[in-house]
Specification:
By secondary structure, the chain is mainly α. It has one domain. It is 74% helix and 0% strand. Helix 1 runs antiparallel to helix 2 and helix 1 runs parallel beside helix 3. The termini are far apart.
Amino acid sequence: MSIFGPTFAVNFFSIFAVLWVLFWKGYSLWIAAKNSKKRWFLALLILNTFGILEIIYIFYVEKKTWHDIKQVLSKKI
């Protein structure tokens, strides 16, 4: 019997999915609030698209780059 059974895979995927959505949703909501985009904020808050709408908003609407995201992640709290 292995410790990495089917339950481990389900739990790992669930944790990964939650962290993925939390990061993209949090970052996109932060940008929308900072730029006073109320309609985008509400759309991003209400719709759950597994990060797809959030990524579109960040990279195509707000024209952010990977460098911008790395700067946010590397800032000290």
